[in-house]
Design a protein that fits this description.
four-stranded antiparallel beta sheet, binds iron/sulfur cluster, alpha/beta, single chain
Length: about 325
């Protein structure tokens, strides 16, 4: 790996108190990942697998219980409050629901200008110009600044959310299910906008979704999460062509095959995602895994790095599964 990762996390652990106050919900169980500058890392998994907690922990909107986070090589967890605020200019979060994330009482101009005001950037006139520029950049008329959120469609609102997110010229955007609240017909427009902005502004993305098709379309590399663990990570093409973890194989087998000459064998998983309050011992996937072995019930699998990642890929294809020799 040549470049310093823009973001690197090692062994992140996060537990929340359970609702009855007697136990703990294990949201993250030792997640490690690295994002290279200009890269999009997709994170995929079922609802409840910990991916949204991971997004918030990476930005320190939630503090992890343990683990390290480095942003451009510097210890991000060691930053004090003022320093953290400065650092947050470089990293922004786009939430799922564009309806909930815009204050209905504010005009769009004030919403998009908010980060500039918070960070004391520009005077009134400069901020107005910047807002007009940002609205144009996300494909909206600059006159939209005078209107209120309820005057826009869901897709337009997500454009406004994105304009606000890029107002401070961040280096990293974490997009948490950014299109799942939108009509399918609008989703591709927002995805195209995100791709276009990445190219024009040199952004790096962490792109979180439960939708494998969307993650495939958007990502350079993909991490698959299951019950607070990353279970497989690989360059996107390789993961979708040759998934190695039984959970990834099951997820990918459920995607409709567009090529009628290719037959994909569907792997149907039994049961639901277990509760993170009582994760199964050993490999957390073992109660649903069609290939589970006795060792899977007792021991969490070590990582296997496959050496056949494409040349220049930042990380090899990594799998946490007892089916493969560790190392
Ligand atoms: Fe299945 Fe065992 Fe691999 Fe887990 S470690 S995915 S239970 S084969």
């Amino acid at each position: 790996m040549s470049a310093v990762p823009i973001l690197e996390a090692r062994d992140l652990v996060k537990r929340f108190p359970s609702r009855d106050g007697h136990g703990a919900i294990q949201a993250l169980s030792g997640v490690s990942l690295a994002l290279q500058p200009g890269e999009t890392l997709g994170i995929v998994g079922e609802s409840g697998c910990g991916k949204s907690t991971l997004a918030r922990v990476l930005l320190r909107l939630i503090e992890p219980d343990s683990g390290t986070i480095r942003f451009e090589g510097a210890d991000f967890r060691a930053r004090g409050v003022a320093d953290l605020r400065r650092a947050r200019r470089d990293m922004q979060l786009v939430f799922q629901d564009p309806y909930a994330s815009l204050d209905p009482r504010l005009r769009i101009g004030s919403i998009v200008a908010e980060p500039l005001v918070i960070h004391g950037i520009g005077d009134r006139a400069a901020r107005r110009r910047r807002v007009a520029e940002l609205l144009e950049l996300v494909g909206l008329d600059p006159d939209a600044a005078m209107l209120y959120p309820h005057e826009f469609s869901g897709g337009q609102r997500q454009r406004i959310v994105i304009a606000r997110a890029i107002a401070l010229e961040p280096k990293l955007v974490i997009a948490d299910e950014p299109v799942s609240a939108l009509d399918v017909s609008i989703q591709s427009q927002i995805l195209n906008l995100l791709s276009d902005l990445k190219r024009r502004l040199g952004l790096s993305y962490i792109f979180i979704s439960h939708d494998l098709g969307i993650v495939h379309h958007m990502s350079d590399r993909v991490a698959v999460m299951y019950l607070g663990h990353v279970v497989e990570m690989a360059p996107a093409e390789q993961l979708f062509e040759d998934p190695r973890h039984p959970y990834t194989q099951a997820l990918i087998s459920a995607i409709p095959e567009p090529d009628p000459t290719r037959v994909r064998k569907r792997v149907v998983l039994s049961g639901d995602l277990p509760s993170p309050e009582a994760p199964p011992p050993g490999c957390p996937f073992h109660p649903r895994c069609p290939q589970a072995m006795p060792v899977c019930r007792e021991t969490f699998p070590a990582v296997t790095d496959f050496v056949d990642a494409p040349p220049g890929a930042p990380d090899p294809h990594r799998v946490w599964c007892h089916l493969y020799p560790a190392g």
